[in-house]
Amino acid sequence: LTPNYLIAKLKNKIIRVNTSIDGVFSINPKTGKFTSPPIEIGFRDYINRIYDQKTVEKLYMQQVSIIKALPELKDYFEIPKYIDSKKIQEINLWVGPGGNTSPLHYDLSNNFFIQLYGSKKFLLYSPAEFYNLYPNSCFSQTPHISKILIDSNTNNYPKLQKVKPIEIIISPGEMLFLPAYWWHQVYSIDTTISVNIWCTPLLKQHFVVGVFHTLLHHSYYLLKSLISK
């Protein structure tokens, strides 16, 4: 799968992409929105821009549903036999240039992350390292995201020195299984095309601190909404 193949399929279909000045696609913990506003752009124009050396602003097509938003591609992908189709929540396409970074966070679902073009680097941390990774408050909009950006502002977070990440590089044709509640920071090494399949986690995966942290978050905002009514 190549950018040219996607252009042939999607042509200049309007898509929504996130933006960043420095290539770090951060989310504001107060608002739950990306710190830089997203834009809408034709897909062919988007590919041209991410290859344009004069483009200062970084762009990233993140987590776009293939079934809901890109039905032109649904026949290209075949679900591997070892993935239980009954547990699939969503199948997403990711397309972006080298130099993009997704900050340290965990997800609530199991993730089969399939690399189709280019390479990505993952830094992985066990759910057991929850308190060493400085998660945002459960009362924020982003309880699943860390206050830390690895390799950037770590001097003020001494507990991080107690843990070492598992570093993995995935290349075209490879897949990474990322269990729910595992922390990860992701770097795009070069122009990349990836697909990820979100799946419902097993019951036994819910006995980690991240689950209770997330439940507190949802309970707080549910109670807040009921009081406001």
Topology:
Elements: H1 3-10, E1 14-20, E2 39-42, H2 43-51, E3 58-65, H3 66-69, E4 88-96, E5 101-105, E6 110-117, E7 120-125, E8 166-170, E9 175-178, E10 183-188, E11 192-199, H4 209-228
Antiparallel strand pairs: 1-2, 1-3, 3-4, 4-11, 5-10, 6-9, 6-11, 7-8, 7-10
Characterise this structure:
The strands form two sheets. A seven-stranded antiparallel β-sheet has the order 2-1-3-4-11-6-9. Strands 5-10-7-8 form a four-stranded antiparallel β-sheet, with no helix packed on it. It has helices at 3-10, 43-51, 66-69, 209-228; strands at residues 14-20, 39-42, 58-65, 88-96, 101-105, 110-117, 120-125, 166-170, 175-178, 183-188, 192-199. The longest helix has 20 residues, at 209-228. By secondary structure, the protein is α+β, with helices and mostly antiparallel strands. The N and C termini lie far apart (50 Å).
Brief descriptors of the model:
229 residues, alpha+beta, four-stranded antiparallel β-sheet
Give the C-alpha Rg: 18 Å
**Total strands:** 11
Number of helices: 4
Arithmetic mean of pLDDT: 93
Overall geometry comes to globular
Instruction: Please describe the biggest sheet, giving its number of strands, its sense, and whether it closes into a barrel.
Output: 7 strands, antiparallel
Query: Regions with pLDDT < 50 over 5+ consecutive residues?
Result: none
Distance between termini?
50 Å
H/E order of the elements?
Answer: HEEHEHEEEEEEEEH
Strand order of the largest sheet: 2-1-3-4-11-6-9
Portion in strands: 25-35%
Oligomer: single chain
Short summary:
With 229 residues, the protein is of the alpha+beta class.
